[in-house]
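Lecture 7, part 2: worked example. A protein chain together with 2-deoxy-2-amino glucitol-6-phosphate.
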Amino acid sequence: MCGIVGHIGPKNSVDIVLEGLRRLEYRGYDSAGVSFIDEHDELQIYKKSGKLDNLKGLLEGKDFQARMCIGHTRWATHGEVNDTNSHPHMKDHISIVHNGIIENASLLRKELATGGYEFKSQTDSEVFLALLTRELAKKKSFKQAMLDSFALVEGNSAFVVLNKDVLEIMSIKKGAPLVCGINSVNSEAFISSDPYALAGMASQLYFPADNVLCHLSPKNKNLINFYDNKGNPSEDFMSKKQDMSVGPTDKGEFEHFMLKEIHEQPELIRSLTQFYFHGEGLESLLKAGEFVPSKFHMTACGTAYYAGLLIRDFLENYNKIPCSPELASEFRYRNPLLQKGESGLFISQSGETADTLAAQELCTENNIKTLSIVNVDGSTLFRNCNNNLLIRAGMEIGVASTKAFTQQALTGRLLSLALSKEVNEEASRVKLTAKFSLLAEKIDHLIARSEEIKDIAESIHNHKGFFYTGRGVYFPVALEGALKLKEIAYVHAEGYAAGELKHGPIAMIDEDMVNVALVGPELFEKTVSNIQEIKARKGVILSIGPKDHEELAELSDYYFGIDFDGLEELSPIYINVVNQLLAYYIAKYKGTDIDKPRNLAKSVTVE
Ligand code: AGP
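Predicted complex, written out as structure tokens:
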């Protein structure tokens, strides 16, 4: 949820941290702040509610020549959005930033206040600062005070602390994302909640395990040392080289990252089979196909869950493997029946979604094999699963997930091929490669028709509410289409099984309600009869279905005809792109912040 960046090095750390925060602003953007050691070795702090630009305004024209800095963009969990509750939090010679939730904060807060600590903010994060202050006052070392303070907090958190007295940064986490990096050429060390912040800056990344203490200091031979919870040197981290030529993505000629990412889909689709059939992904695909479980427990959140529903259809139709789809936030608490020989399947873009991580942990605790379909290589989910299939979507910056949905569903289709063992047959690989390429080509044609979708969006964007309806494999797409509209246009929209509308919700249909009817070639007549039920009640009909269909055109107030030929099981992914563009243009007409919608964050790393 929150973005964290820390830096030590000979350059101006404040500028480097601000650049990292700019890249992470999509993760959470209620407020931002930095704390640093200036050229006089004084600890300074600047923080401001609102977007990162508000903080930059405070720092305009100042050159602190700082060589050590930590920074934070906040997505509020405890305490309202204001300057005081913004991070960092500072006391005497230390300042901290935090991502996550301290679940026993109120108990600790009472104890610390009784011990004389005067809290300035309403946040749970300041509790860690108070604990650290108390432990340091006992003349403990910075390292020991960090370990002892961290041992007292419950819940999933990452803390990064800057200490003016010893001129060092320390960090520790549990169940929250944290990555360290170095650039040995420039003698720089970095720390962040997201590798994206370090793109093009750090040439070597380190992903510490939970409870590993990270120690960044110019006095360290390798700039970063790692310790276990007893303070002994630790090797409990994963490291990987980072291609320094890959910098942060920018929007290019696009007005929004979301539109850019919608347009990226054809190219990403084409490259997916290349990666898995002829590239470094083949080994993981074959490995994923080795273990054929008696049942999959598919769990995810939001858009990833809807992609998982499509994957459920692939696994049950092609592999005859039962696949029970569950929202991760429900699965983790309902004591699911988990039997030996079954497998957990986790779908996630970020690989850091708290509920999905907890669901994976529950499966591991029950000795159930775990497989992820995930975008971020090295993410917590990636590291915790027995096996992973990367979706190869590249960085997805838009908070509303688009290309990740497409890549998740298609990677699921490749999993289905691997489990059927047909992945070993060249003819099967060629056939599926051709189908993926056809999908990419049709999406290119869809994108070329954006103006038509934009015109429809202009006509319907002021209606009070939307139903997205679909049958069979189009029902998950109806759910996803409604979510897109809710997320970025703040319009009430519901995804509904077309056959369910008459069991109650049809009471809501009137001239101000729009029904976006997803009409695939399958179950066509049934879906059309549902449209007629809505038409009879004066609902506004937008049909997205097979092109050149007179009956559909006559029935509909708006009709967007598309060509499904040859796509077969990939048709739902295709029709979903129309919904992505529809939501985008409706949001544009409503003037919302499409890349950073209100109240949202890109990765929900807290419950
Ligand atoms: C999708 O548009 C949303 N941003 C949200 O539903 C997201 O899909 C969900 O939070 C899951 O995130 P993940 O894929 O990173 O696990």
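The radius of gyration is 25 Å. The chain has a mean pLDDT of 93. Keep this in mind for problem set question 3.
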